[in-house]
């Protein structure tokens, strides 16, 4: 089976036919499926869509059960958690709906973990980290663009000289480099390449 456009989060099952992994959709399985919008809803109270999955959490005064339902809890109501709570060995603990969030100093509200600055994010060498609330994603480095090549997506060099996105002087020639470009003044001109006289 050959899928010309590839299957980003899935596998090729027939000519240009992708079978998406759970949590993904689209012709090339490149779109995150918003499970929170499905009928019936997967969570009883509140639902948070995540990349390829989702998280359930409960309204204040309710406790999240292992099956995703919410049970009324007097102890939870007293703690006043932002995203509901769970009882561990008789102790009430507030919950955060994502591993990219952590309990704040008050032990009730959730604050974002910046995976990019803490070094928890894993991006390949030619990609840079972009922090989001509760998570992060990897974006191509400046001077590179995401392209589908043979069997997978990769960051490839943008040829600024061909795309005409360089800032070379009218009297300079553009030279493409990996991830960038250089400008060199033409014969009979002198300067940086951005300015030629």
TrEMBL record:
Calcium as UniProt keyword: yes
UniProt GO MF annotations: calcium ion binding
Keyword Secreted attached: yes
InterPro entries: EGF (IPR000742), EGF-like_Ca-bd_dom (IPR001881), EGF-type_Asp/Asn_hydroxyl_site (IPR000152), EGF_Ca-bd_CS (IPR018097), Growth_fac_rcpt_cys_sf (IPR009030), Nephronectin_domain (IPR052235), NOTCH1_EGF-like (IPR049883)
CDD domains: EGF_CA (cd00054)
Pfam families the record matches: EGF_CA (PF07645)
Domain of life (superkingdom): Eukaryota
Keywords, comma-separated and alphabetical: Calcium, Cell adhesion, Developmental protein, Differentiation, Disulfide bond, EGF-like domain, Extracellular matrix, Repeat, Secreted, Signal
GO BP terms in the entry: cell adhesion; cell differentiation
Domain EGF-like: 32-71, 112-150, 157-195
Protein localization: Secreted, Extracellular space, Extracellular matrix
Family named by the database record: Belongs to the nephronectin family.
Protein name per its UniProtKB record: EGFL6 protein
Provenance organism: Jacana jacana
Gene label: Egfl6_0
């Amino acid at each position: 089976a050959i899928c010309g456009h590839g299957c980003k989060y899935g596998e090729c099952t027939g000519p240009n036919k992708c079978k998406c992994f759970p949590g993904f959709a689209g012709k090339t399985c490149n779109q995150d499926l918003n499970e929170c919008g499905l009928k019936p809803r997967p969570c009883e109270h509140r639902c948070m869509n995540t990349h390829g999955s989702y998280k359930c959490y409960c309204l204040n005064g309710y406790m999240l059960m292992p099956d995703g339902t919410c049970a009324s809890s007097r102890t939870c109501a007293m703690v006043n958690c932002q995203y509901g709570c769970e009882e561990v060995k008789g102790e009430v603990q507030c919950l955060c709906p994502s591993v990219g969030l952590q309990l704040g100093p008050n032990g009730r509200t959730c604050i974002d973990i910046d995976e990019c600055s803490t070094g928890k994010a894993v991006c390949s060498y030619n990609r840079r980290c972009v922090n989001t609330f509760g998570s992060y994603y990897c974006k191509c480095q400046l001077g590179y663009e995401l392209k589908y090549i043979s069997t997978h997506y990769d960051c490839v060099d943008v040829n600024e000289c061909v795309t005409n996105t360089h800032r070379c002087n009218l009297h300079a020639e553009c030279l493409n480099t990996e991830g960038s470009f250089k400008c060199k003044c033409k014969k009979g001109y002198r300067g940086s390449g951005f300015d030629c006289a």
